């Protein structure tokens, strides 16, 4: 099987149910999810050792789910019976977030991406995830999409923030705080 088909040479690509322009909002949405998936793979490569085994396993699961998100957004015609992403995935992320939060110190100031290599990579995942979410919102403004994808991406960016902090904690590296910030997060 050849890797090139030449079918996209005129600026069109195939989606589930037809063909669209390569810069279509749908392609932008699932393309950004694909980009995110690549960054998640990079983060996994930095999650070395036994102390990150749980995070590695979670990120590997996230990669599978991101493929599901992209697949769900690739449908031109709504076919809810074929959707792979369900609200349970966002709920499961909440459990992971809560578990990581127990390890993390309280946040008092805004956090700047940085610290350890793994934490920095996870912050890149967070920002690309936010862009993927924005692309899904844009797509949803003019066509029906699986709303569970949007909820999943929203929760996933929260997960990346929290697990980036956990990566720093486990490596004994402090978070990088925004020094001009007052204490904005109080209980």
TrEMBL record:
Coiled coil spans: none
UniProt keyword list: ATP-binding, Cobalamin biosynthesis, Nucleotide-binding, Transferase
A GO MF term: corrinoid adenosyltransferase activity
Superkingdom classification of source: Bacteria
Enzyme Commission designation: 2.5.1.17
Pathway assigned to this chain's UniProt record: Cofactor biosynthesis; adenosylcobalamin biosynthesis; adenosylcobalamin from cob(II)yrinate a,c-diamide: step 2/7
InterPro entries associated with the record: CblAdoTrfase-like, CblAdoTrfase-like_sf, PduO-typ
Pfam families: Cob_adeno_trans
SUPFAM superfamilies to which the protein is assigned, alphabetical: Cobalamin adenosyltransferase-like
Annotated Cobalamin adenosyltransferase-like domain residues: 3-167
Catalytic activity from the UniProt record: 2 cob(II)yrinate a,c diamide + reduced [electron-transfer flavoprotein] + 2 ATP = 2 adenosylcob(III)yrinate a,c-diamide + 2 triphosphate + oxidized [electron-transfer flavoprotein] + 3 H(+); 2 cob(II)alamin + reduced [electron-transfer flavoprotein] + 2 ATP = 2 adenosylcob(III)alamin + 2 triphosphate + oxidized [electron-transfer flavoprotein] + 3 H(+)
Similarity remark: Belongs to the Cob(I)alamin adenosyltransferase family.
Known partners and oligomeric status: Homotrimer.
Protein name (Swiss-Prot/TrEMBL): Corrinoid adenosyltransferase
Species name: Paenibacillus terrae
Source species taxonomy: Bacteria, Bacillati, Bacillota, Bacilli, Bacillales
């Amino acid at each position: 099987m050849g890797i090139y088909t030449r079918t996209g040479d005129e600026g069109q690509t195939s989606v589930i149910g037809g063909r669209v322009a390569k810069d279509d909002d749908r392609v932008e949405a699932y393309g950004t999810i694909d980009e995110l998936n690549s960054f998640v793979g990079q983060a996994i490569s930095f999650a070395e050792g036994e102390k990150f085994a749980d995070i590695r396993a979670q990120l590997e699961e996230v990669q599978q789910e991101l493929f599901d998100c992209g697949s769900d957004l690739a449908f031109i015609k709504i076919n809810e019976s074929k959707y792979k992403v369900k609200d349970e995935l966002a709920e499961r992320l909440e459990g992971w977030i809560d578990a990581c939060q127990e390890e993390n110190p309280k946040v008092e100031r805004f956090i700047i991406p940085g610290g350890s290599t793994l934490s920095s990579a996870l912050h890149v995942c967070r920002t690309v995830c936010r862009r993927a979410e924005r692309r899904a919102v844009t797509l949803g403004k003019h066509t029906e999409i699986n709303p569970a994808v949007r909820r999943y991406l929203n929760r996933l960016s929260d997960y990346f923030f929290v697990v980036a902090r956990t990566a720093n904690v486990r490596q004994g590296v402090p978070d990088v705080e925004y020094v001009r910030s007052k204490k904005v997060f109080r209980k």
